[in-house]
């Protein structure tokens, strides 16, 4: 019985944590991670400040938990759909298309979570910056990885510079997100898709 | 004499204003425009809070004045050097090179001022967001303008899609800035320069 009560408390705690992190991800995507405060989140969700505090212990821990939760969402929406496609150029295309759909569909209210918080923290120091940098490095590593696979399979030319092509594709994706969020101009999604097609065509054997 | 005293006060006021805006541009480039508060700026510069308040009247006015000052710096460092080169592909190249030098040389402590604050305010509403969006729109307009000139002169192919090419060049420039500021990896400057060369070569008649 004591075990069941503890399990019930843990389940409620986990549920509250998910509720809180859903809100903190949306706030951070619009206003940045600095916009998060335990008091504000508690008020918005009708929870007690002490209850939210007990879940995280500090504002910084809440920021870090928000980044981890956003990484999981990003993996599910952008990375996993590409992993369901066989390795090769098709997977590179799918990864780019998933990112554009993730940004355009406003998975997070303020567009791409990581673009929003990267600029906010990039020039600072500390654990939050390091977590943001690690998440972005993981993303760039993912883009490089799918390009490398495609090259290893002979679907991209052997002389393709993998970090260079990854840099160019990631730049186009982020620019489409920025145009849409800042200028409310969705034309960038088509421009990015067209430029990515051209880059991949040029990197294809005989292309 | 009364006129001279007033002139002296105005001159001192302008000097203080420049001092304050120099600091607020650096703070905003690292921590964003939300990092600005009249009290903080006064403390950091050893000025009275009421004196700084008298210069701007509100935090929002200080943010807007900071954006205007940063636009002037950006024009001087990025746009004007390109205007000193004759219209054509050379001016497009110079504009891109000036941006990369402006970012790499940390004209602002946190890298490109507008990239830093665009992500911060892009998903919000209000006068600060509008000013940031106007500054970025002006920049994209400038990139399109120099490409259009080059096309009109026949130095770029007649079928070059001007907004498309401007989107691609601006994306590469911003990505180089982001890599340098967030990952402290300056490799993006070379990657951006290489990709820009390739895009312009492909857009050149016979290219």
From TrEMBL, chains A, B:
Residues 37-56 bind DNA. Keywords: DNA-binding, Transcription, Transcription regulation. Residues 14-74 form the HTH tetR-type domain. GO terms for molecular function: DNA binding. InterPro entries: Homeodomain-like_sf, HTH_TetR, Tet_transcr_reg_TetR-rel_C_sf, TetR_C. Gene3D superfamilies: Homeodomain-like (1.10.10.60), Tetracycline Repressor, domain 2 (1.10.357.10). This is TetR/AcrR family transcriptional regulator. It comes from Streptomyces radicis.
């Amino acid at each position: 019985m004591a075990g069941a009560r503890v399990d019930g408390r843990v389940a409620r705690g986990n549920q509250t944590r998910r509720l809180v992190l859903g809100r903190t991800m949306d706030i951070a995507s619009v206003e940045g991670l600095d916009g998060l405060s335990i008091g504000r989140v508690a008020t918005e969700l009708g929870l007690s400040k002490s209850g939210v505090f007990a879940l995280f212990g500090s504002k910084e821990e809440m920021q870090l938990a928000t980044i981890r939760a956003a990484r999981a969402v990003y993996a599910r929406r952008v990375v996993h759909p590409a992993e369901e496609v066989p390795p090769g150029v098709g997977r590179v295309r799918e990864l780019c298309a998933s990112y554009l759909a993730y940004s355009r569909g406003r998975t997070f209210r303020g567009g791409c979570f990581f673009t929003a918080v990267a600029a906010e923290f990039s020039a600072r120091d500390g654990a939050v910056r390091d977590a943001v940098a690690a998440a972005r490095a993981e993303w760039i590593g993912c883009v490089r990885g799918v390009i490398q696979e495609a090259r290893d399979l002979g679907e991209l030319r052997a002389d393709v510079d993998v970090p260079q092509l990854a840099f160019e594709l990631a730049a186009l994706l982020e620019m489409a997100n920025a145009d849409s969020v800042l200028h409310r101009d969705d034309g960038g999604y088509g421009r990015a898709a067209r430029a990515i097609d051209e880059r991949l065509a040029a990197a294809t054997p005989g292309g």
